[in-house]
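Weekly structure sync, notes
Attendees: PL (lead), two postdocs, one rotation student
Agenda item 3: pending single-chain targets
PL asked that the sequence for the first pending target be pasted directly into the notes so everyone works from the same version. It is reproduced below exactly as submitted, 536 residues in total.
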Amino acid sequence: MQQDKYDAVVIGAGHNGLVAACYLQRAGLKVLVLERNSYIGGATTSISRYEDFTYSNCSYVYSLFRQEIARSLELYKYGLQVIPYEGGAQIIKNPDGTYDSMGTYWHEDAVRRDLERFSTRDANAFDRLSRDIYRQCDFIKPLLMRTPPDPTSFKPRDLMELLYLGKRFYGLGEERMLETIRFYTMSVGDYLNEYLENDALKSYMAGGATVGTALGVYSPGTAYILLHHAMGDIDGTVGAWGFARGGMGAVSKALNDSFLSSGGTVRVNAGVEKFIVERGKVKGMQLENGEIIDTKLVVSGMDLRRTFNAIDPNELPQWVVDRAKNFRFRGSSGKVNIALSGVPTFHGIPKNSPSMKGDLHISQNMDELELAYDDWKAGRWSKNPYLDILIPSLIDPTMTPEGKHWMSVFTQYCPYKLAEGEWNEQRKQAFGQHIVDCISAYSPDLKDKILHMEIRTPKDIEDETGLTEGNIFQGELTMDQLMFNRPIPGYAQYRSPISGLYMCGSSTHPGGGVMGAPGANAAREVMLDLGKRIKS
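Predicted structure, written out during the meeting:
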């Protein structure tokens, strides 16, 4: 049978791969997407593992996805709905054994009143902290959808982009210029200590700055990761988070429907074994089943290491091979999805409080978070982990049977490599039970309501999604792996050393999270090389 001819082949039907495929198809190319799993989405999926319950298996919250992408690809037309959080809470265990909670709400006056119960100073400082964080967001957000310049290049395009960056930076003014440099090199712990005094509030803010990264709250550079989680928005509300109705798979489904409606083709169960390269140019790929697909244009949504592992190393410069090998992933996150017979209660949170309809946290202070990191360094899951606990079904009832709920628990830290040996079913179950025990110390009836648990270690995440070492960002978000260093210097503009082979995964600028920017930026560079314009 004669093989269909495609102008471009995108590897991986994760959200970035689908974004790139959508734009290339709309630009007039005939595009094929290959996905090794039996379903699309990568780490952005909604899958049923138990009866009529649906879990957001890996990624679980929506905020970072660029609105310009959602609008231009008409994702809302194809069914994407986003429901914002209605609150959140930090549970506090008092020295006398009683409990309280510090709530976060949509209305800033309600947040302020709750903070004032614990510290008037922090209630005032929180406004300043939020202002300063969003100022940093204002500086970085326009860069997300731009291709990083090559600082060693004298090409007019790179010089103009460097000039653009310089003008933006100079426009901050002397005081904010110095503060920005300082911010990017600080630990989140030191940064928050300059504003806040309440330990629980600091731990509530700091935990997210270590998500997906093998660093502690006092590791330099973690202040930026705090920013990475604050620069999203929902309906123009900067810093807001929410749920995709039906789970995060709704994002992938909308992207897939947009792509198919433009005439694109998706094949599942089609993993790539290797790329076929001749004289420095890509000629196609061989699938895991032995099938050969010919094409002169490939866009890889796989991470840096998996992309280059699919290339004969003799076709790559040795320094590139070495850089790819040294690109840091260091999986440090786990996930537990729990089916519940009802809504569990939490110490310190009033019944029916809106703070339940958002993220719940139980870490008590910064030292606890730093010790959790120490456990990871020793090859153990954390004794007192940072947990991001949500019950999405309180807002989105479409994911569970009526009257029942599901809980998403993201945990930091969980090592990819255990000191005591390889991951197996017994250790995996012990990890999941430990997480439940940690939550149960603050939720006395949780265990009685558990119907089913899906436990995901970094190894499980790697095996299922292809994320090396289970790193949710396709590589750590540290200063040496950002901007023109991401993924490696000289190849930060979505091109690879192989002519015709591009990269669009989160290993490229601006990094991880369900953002879509790497896919859109890569598609733009492909079309630039082809002399075409992307159609919205």
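Discussion points:
- The chain is about 35% helix and 20% strand.
- The longest strand covers residues 333-340.
Action: rotation student to compare against the earlier draft before next sync.
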